[in-house]
Amino acid sequence: MAITIPPLKRSDFLTGQPLVDGSEVYGDATYAVTNPATRETLANVASLGATQTHRAIESNSRAFIDWRKRPAQERAGLLHDWLTLVRHYRQDLGLLITAEQGKPLAEALGEVDYAASFIQWFAEEARRVYGEVIPASANRRIVLIRQPIGVVGAITPWNFPAAMITRKVAPALAAGCTITLKPSEFTPLTAFALAKLALEAGIPPGVFNVVCGDAPAIGSTLTSHPYVTKFTFTGSTAVGKLLTAQCATTLKRVSMELGGNAPLLVFDDADLEPAVEGAVASKFRNTGQTCVCANRILVQSGIHDRFVEALAARVSAFQVGNGLEGATDQGPLIAASALAKVRDHVADAVAQGAHLVTGGKRHEAGELFFQPTVLTEANPTMRLADEETFGPVAPVFRFETEAEALALANATRSGLAAYAFTRDIDRAWRVVEGLETGMVGLNNGIVSTETAPFGGIKESGLGREGSRHGIQEFLEMKTISLGVRPENEV
User: Fold this and answer.
1) What mean pLDDT is predicted for residues 62-91?
2) pLDDT tens-digit readout, 107-142
3) CA-to-CA dists, residue 63 to 160, 214, 279, 361, angstroms
């Protein structure tokens, strides 16, 4: 029997709707938001389209006139008030994330903390938007100031339904911008809750709007509307390319955090236990449904067998199930299409000679659950070598030399994250510098933090999120040339 979500302090989080200009919006149609673990309906939410998105953008434009003029200290204070409410309702938000996204509750609560960290970080960064004075000639001074770019359009994915929102919304608001957000259709309830808490914190109506429903219509409106001067997206590379092309018609500033194909390299001299734990943390967090997951695990021959044995032992011990039923390590996949892709990747690998060490099929926990899986004898011709699996499958590739490992690691158009485990400091520098990715985890399997820039190279995107660099994505530079009279003319 399916277990429903436990009672929330804020029951309205389960009846939330899109929020435009401070008011909930109800469209002509609705769609069901379901729990991927149980397939039960959690809520029916309004399905909006281009008309309501236009309204949201126009309200952003009106609100921007006042919001951009507010002192940085005032914007920072309102973000801190939002942060206080997010932390107060941490348990509710965690339960909501697990219910609509499926990740274990402990991970969901960790995500709420991670989401809160971006609000806190950018509340503090609001007061650190500095200008510059550039040396010039005797009768001229050059001053550079930074100003909010304007109205922002944003689209976020389902795998981190809170953190991917605050990582975009917090710097936008801190910079003095206004924003209309389209969350994933799978996970809108968390977005509605965050927007409602922002409004309750005193962030004015129209500064932060949320719309959902007809994805092509909403996306095309956000990318084509002339009032939107900045567009930011997290999702697949294919969709990111399409949205970037649409933004070109109005030459919007774009930030794209796109797909990955992360390699994790384990060299013979690595400490075995940290390497295994790093692989587990990277590969199986959120049931393998993150863009920085280790998609390919490359292990040097001398440590290969011991690594595989230890990894398989950890993976086969995972508790798989509904994150609302008790302690679990792995939850469901988000949709039937996601499970089909994982199943097909495993079948293709086995057909091409991969050896199934553990897992490999659907899990009895439910319709969208897949057994945590370890494969060996993986090779570059397999689909999982070139495509992002986005599921709980760890393929292990054997290599002999450092040069071979780097060649395998870089043989992809993706360049988001990579990981390497070695105790040799010389090799560490060679590998870190040789990996063609925007981020590298050296002897650890987690690269994401609010204090560090997050983003990729090649076809994994444009721009950076988080850190002191993240707010720059929402600012324009203005050069001011000041004429100064020489002393003999004063």
Assistant:
1) 98
2) 999 999 999 999 999 999 999 999 999 988 778 999
3) 28, 25, 46, 51
Going by the DSSP 8-state scheme, the letter that residue 362 receives in this structure is B
Going from the N-terminus, what domains does the chain have, and what CATH number goes with each? Answer: 11-258 (3.40.605.10), 262-442 (3.40.309.10)
Residue positions annotated with a catalytic role: 257
| Both structure tokens of 24 | 């909930």
* CB-based burial label for 261 (10 Å; 0-12, 13-18, 19+): buried
Give the pLDDT of residue 490.
57
For the segment 392-411, the average pLDDT, to the nearest whole number, is: 98
375 token code pair: 């494969």
Alpha-carbon span 104 to 324, nearest angstrom: 7
Which residues fall within 8 angstroms of residue 159, CB to CB, at 6 or more apart?
A: 101, 286, 289, 290, 291, 334
Q: What span, in angstroms and rounded, lies between the C-alpha atoms of 276 and 264? A: 11
Average pLDDT over residues 273-286: 98
Per the CB < 8 A criterion, the answer to whether 3 and 37 are in contact is: no
- According to the model, what pLDDT value does residue 169 have? 98
- Using CA atoms, how far apart are residues 173 and 203, in angstroms rounded to an integer? 9
Q: Are strands 253-257 and 228-234 parallel, antiparallel or unpaired?
A: parallel
Radius of gyration of the chain (CA): 24
Q: Using the CB atoms, write b or e for 379-414: b if 16+ within 10 Å.
A: eeebebbebbbbbbbbbbbbbeebeebbebbbebeb
Cα–Cα dist 345/391, whole Å: 10
Pairing between β-strand 132-134 and β-strand 355-358 as defined by DSSP bridges: unpaired
Neighbours of 425 (CB within 10 A): 8
- Residue 50 φ/ψ, nearest 5 degrees: -65, -40
- CB neighbours of residue 151 within 10 Å: 27
What pLDDT does residue 486 have?
Answer: 76
E strands, 329-463, are 355-358, 373-376, 393-399, 417-421, 439-442, 461-462
